[in-house]
User: What shape does this take?
Amino acid sequence: MNTIIGERTRQVRAGRQRHQMAQRMWQERWRAPWFGYFCAFVGVVGVSLVIALVQAQTPIANISLLYLVAVLWVAVSFGRGSAICAALLAFLADDLFFIPPFYRLTVDDPNQWLSLFTLLATALVAGQLTAAARARAQEAQESRQYTETLYALAQLIATATDDSTLLTTLAQWGSDSFALAGVRACAILQTDVEGALTLCALTPANSSLMPLPDEETILRRANQALTTEQPINFSLPTGDALAGDSPSPACLACIPLRSNRQIVGALGLIGSEGMVRLIERQANLGDDQLASLFGAYRDQLALTLERAALRRQAIHTEALRESDRLKTALLESVTHDLRTPLAGIKAAVTSLLAPTAQRSLVAQHELLAAINTSADRLNRLVSNLLDLSRLEAGVAKPHLEWYTIDEVIVAALDTLERAGQLDARRIVVETPDDLPLALMDHDQIERVMINLVENALKYSPAQGVIHIAARVIRDELETRVSDEGIGVTPGELTAIFEKFYRGQQPTQPGASRMAGGVGLGLSICASIIHAHQGRIWAESQPGHGATFIFTLPLSPERPLGELPELPGRTETLALPA
Assistant: This one.
């Protein structure tokens, strides 16, 4: 929370400094030049009145030095030109009103000339030095705020993680920073892979000060700017203003954004016709810091768009590389797993069709059983591939009904028993008596149980016991499937849930079979559990078996009516060979 508040405070402070800098620079450019000379005249008149009042009461020698106060004030406030004007006016006022003969530009006493010219020289020198110090201080202040503003912009770009949010923030940054230059809204457009422009950000989205163009208009005008590769200004039709006021005349300026001599997008500025001066001055930067700030903003925006394009390209390249890897793994795995059962079916069928072969009914039955087993293996492979594709496409959404986990466990074990996969294995099921009903898709969770038990059968010895347990932890129903096999290495605990990943082959003595399959079983389990808003993970100590745990959320609602409850059980299923 403190980090968020600190970041927000920093952004507000940076925005205030940016606005103050732009305001001061803009006021310096467009303040009426005669205002400083007017203030010089007023200042000299005011000091003359003060001197007159003082002299009427008590004559004081060298009281004309009070004119230096007016000169210094004008120099600090308005610069060198106004200070020179104030010094000359002070010279004339002192001669006209306080040195005889009065109201004439002559001097009776020659010694007064020295006093007059000393006043003039002192006023000019003091005004020049004060104005120079003022200019240097103002330049230092503007340079500091200019540097801070650019640093805040660079930090904003460097720390952003989401391109969409960053572009929206940069658009708002531009409209705020150059609002005093006539900018009312800022649009950022980006080129896609085919070179077409897309509107990424427009802030503010609406304005009562002037009409904003629609997306189609911005895209059309920006494309024209990209064609000419030069900024283009377009007049916008006026619309109805809020509260009956007439909106200001609007203008759309489209500026191509280049990075490494390549156009990566466009910047659209919507504002008054006066903002065109900002763009024109930016073409010839000179000493105009506001134009320099706009140029830096444009360049940083171009770099941001280029970085976003490179990131998208890298993601696309990585996606293609991953897709190729998955395709290669799929072809290798599917080819191997299809070839093995097909070879068994072909060999059995060829043996049955041999005209010279004389086989007993028992031998024929064994060959037919081998064909049936191979066909089942092919069916499971194809079913896994279809299930995975449907889950990834979002088609196989769970059909939630109220069930107990006992029902699912019993159904899964019955399916495995009918398929002849349990052999002589011992499976212990432990569930408490008060397990609640849970919302689940019976068929999908049954598939999860089948895949987890099959996985335990593959990676545990023939004499090992498989434990299945269920319990309630807080607001979740937790189910565990544990084996006494070779376990899973720490580096594989996450990878085993990825597509086409196959764990290490069982090597301990007594393992029931070599681990086969394409590597889709656990990936399908993870997809199904995630679709149920649950969690699935594995725990293991290598050489001491593995435990696969999945949880399902328990809804605070309960089904209407009374449903039969299955009693809890602690039983050992020991199926004969």
